[in-house]
Amino acid sequence: MNNVHNLLIIGSGPAGLTAAIYAARTELKPIVFEGDSPGGQLINTSFVENWPGNISILGAQLINNIKKHAKHFGTQSIHETITKVDFNKRPFTLWTNKNNEYKAKAIIVATGAGPKKLGCPGEKEYWGKGVTTCAICDGALYKDLPVVIIGGGDTAMEDASFMTRFTNQITIIHLLDKLTASPAMQKRVFNNPHIKIIYNSTVSEIRGNSEHITEIVITNQKTHEQTTIPTRALFLAIGIKPNTTFLNGALKLDNYGYIETFCPTTSTSVEGIFACGDAADYMYRQAITAAGSGCMAALDAQRYLETTE
């Protein structure tokens, strides 16, 4: 436990595992800490249809393939969650939820991000079965079917506009009595006859047939009236939160909790610590961009270790 490793990788999504593939191939013998959600957001995604080389593949299968790839080259995976870090002195130190201590010359943080959720009945049951956060990822699966988007900001408007490529049955549900998106984004939605907006309402329940979502129940916050809306997809666009609280000030974060990196590298505010994937990316948030940044982080870590040894 007290041996000093070359490279530790915190996170087991496409960013962390891709970093592990590159690091393992250069004999860095990386260790990946899987965390409490092995595979990241991809594990709960239904079919992925925008991963190069796979026309359609289940998210769980895709992440399993990447994990096997990393293991093939010698990556070690540990099913523990990092709860505390010390980046003030080298070697760096990590502590896990099982009270184990690990030290390393370099560290890659790839802990990803998690969507803010509704917390209503049926959400957990139908997550990945029509309930999702990525219209770009899953939108094409719902051609000519009714879909609902939750939120009133720019992301919700972008999702609604994107979904018009596939269906003319789009409903936006928003908690407030007016949208919070930019005027330009609002105008795009207002001018589209295929997008309906319901204000002052929240989702009270998500229902389905065990296999997939079929309808939702919404509650008007002013009248308390409940309405059932048939839908085959529920896209949550109420925000994303990066999984960075465990750092507890060890790295410089932006105002939204994302790790600040110094482009074009994945270097962070601490030399020898690198960040990739959704923990540092507030803009793209795609599996393929996460994997790409994981590659970058591994190459950056390799160069760092070469110059310090």
Description:
There is one protein chain. The protein is of the alpha/beta class and 309 residues long. It folds into 2 domains: 4-114 and 240-308, FAD/NAD(P)-binding domain (3-Layer(bba) Sandwich), CATH 3.50.50.60; 131-236, FAD/NAD(P)-binding domain (3-Layer(bba) Sandwich), CATH 3.50.50. It is built from 6 helices and 19 strands. The chain has helices at 14-25, 59-72, 135-138, 154-163, 183-190, 287-308; strands at residues 4-10, 31-33, 47-48, 57-58, 76-78, 82-86, 92-96, 101-109, 113-115, 131-132, 147-150, 170-173, 195-198, 201-208, 213-220, 226-230, 233-236, 240-242, 273-275. Helix 1 runs parallel beside helix 2 and helix 4 packs parallel to helix 5. The longest helix is centred in the last third of the chain and has 22 residues, at 287-308. The mean pLDDT is 95.
